[in-house]
Amino acid sequence: MFPAKVLVANQIAVHSRAMRSKRDIDYDSLLPSRTFKGVSSFVHDREKFDEGVRLIRESVPAKFAFFQGDDMIAWGRTMSFLDDPVVSEDLKGGRMTKPDSRIVWRTYILANLAKACIALGGDLMEVGCYAGRTAEKLVRRLDLSKTGRTYWLYDLFDPQPGDGHIEQEHHGADLYESVRERFADHDFVRVVRGRVPDVLSEQGPERVCFAHVDLNNPEAEVGALEWIIPRMAPGGMILLDDYGWLPLSNQKKAIDAHLAPSGREVIELPTGQGLLIVS
What we know:
Radius of gyration: 22 Å
Mean pLDDT: 89
Strand order of the largest sheet: 6-5-4-7-8-10-9
Low-confidence stretches: none
Helix content: 25-40%
Distance between the termini: 42 Å
């Protein structure tokens, strides 16, 4: 065995060579460096946060791409989500709202995973669709009208005290009709109002290729998984929007405990999402 001091010295030498090679990068031969600033929610001192971001930005190579948003900071990435047709259209057309900018990387992942699953056979589900903005982007991105698939959207729309769901700005008596109106021209979209998982047995697909679950409620999400997994096409995917978020980690605990007997595991993504591939 090598002495600890030798191992540390070797690690330092390797790290130093790597740093020299990074400083010698020919930036002109690389893809363009881009910057994206979205919204971060869990910040209690905005002034200190902005100053911290400024210092981080100054400490990395000036030609490195830089991402800030969704409570995440990253640099040196290619940020391919900016080339996504829907993201690009929204940015150029001035249609990207602050909430959209917060979840732009998440939406890119969602759309591309859904696209990969369509060929498997079965319908798509958005379990916890809220105002339908994310679902609308998926419809635009995938041109679902040509796939022969039904896109099922579920929500309470007007949660009441004691329902165990996080109340959000647009929740209310009119939200259900608002979402129906948003998809009025898309006969392949089914908007269903009701409590998950109970409503799934009343109105739900026979076979599922992709499901996006965003219920902000541990019991409801476990119930959704119990219903969806047996109906998944082999290789289908379930994307859990809140799985990796610490403030909502009761959902992760409940989901992990539910999946443990089957040996299934969720892959936590840097965006806070969780990916479950059903074989």
